[in-house]
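To whoever is on call:

I kicked off a structure prediction for a single chain this morning and the downstream step that reads the tokens threw a length-mismatch warning. I double-checked the sequence; it's 317 residues and nothing unusual in it as far as I can see. Pasting both halves so you can look.
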Amino acid sequence: MTRFAAIDCGTNSIRLLISEIVGGVPREIHRTMEIVRLGQGVDATGELHPDALARTRAALERYVDTMLFEKVERVRMVATSATRDAENREDFFAMTAELLGRVQPGVQAEVISGEEEALLSFRGAVRDLPADVGPFCVIDLGGGSTEFVVGTHDGDLAGATSAQMGCVRLTERIMRSDPPTASEVEIARDYIRERLDTVTTLVPLSRAATFVGCAGTFTTLSALAQGLERYDPSMIHCSELNFDALRVLTGQLAATPSAERAMNPVIHQGRADVIGSGSIIVQEIMDVIERETPARSFVISEKDILDGIIDSLRDPA
């Protein structure tokens, strides 16, 4: 059986999924994530920081070793917001070509558009959800951008867009204090609302019956809401978060110093300083959903763009 590997390198984290196909269905072999903060300073300088490149290289070397051990034959790596914005992105590409070539000659990271990122995320996020609770709006909240895509379970898409708002971008650009000041939070809200106004003109949120949150901010919020003592993907996947309770939780997170957040075992050390910004983004998204639809909760998916990439490898069409 052919083993496939998907790598997603975003602004904050780099993640790996290795799967094989059994009876036409992907079977997960290995899934892991490391916080490398590739987008460190990109918003201000326009370039990938040497330290960020070094952290990313070290993580990717470990991933390559894992792929070789698991006998992966085909790999696809996508790079999103941070590399789209960086002037020195060719240094990053050369590094990925060198390392990924050990697994599959000629492969290197691809910079995909925000729209393709949204489509791949949708494909993965709705895989385990029942078709009859659709149409779905999948929201992939990342470090540099947030993707919105509306469609049905069978892939009939009504709209997709990528908004340049993410937890790292907002932390570095606006919410710099720890915890953020009231003024910083209000400026951040204005920034988010401007981008959400564009989202609502491009994507028909009102057609969605179920809103699906994926990626680290949403999954961490689910772990916190459930009071988990450790991060447990099986408890998080397909869990439901009520908006009213989530507003209380996100408000508390945004007002808590990052050192105190980091003491909670379900918050990754590399996410503790940015989940406050992520919480403000989630609050504003909830407000928009309530204005546009009757929905009052998120379904949380542990599956996302990585699972969509696996699908694209085994079924390129």
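Update from on-call: the warning came from a stale cache, not from the record. Cleared it. Sanity check on the structure: The chain has two domains: 3-111, 129-300.
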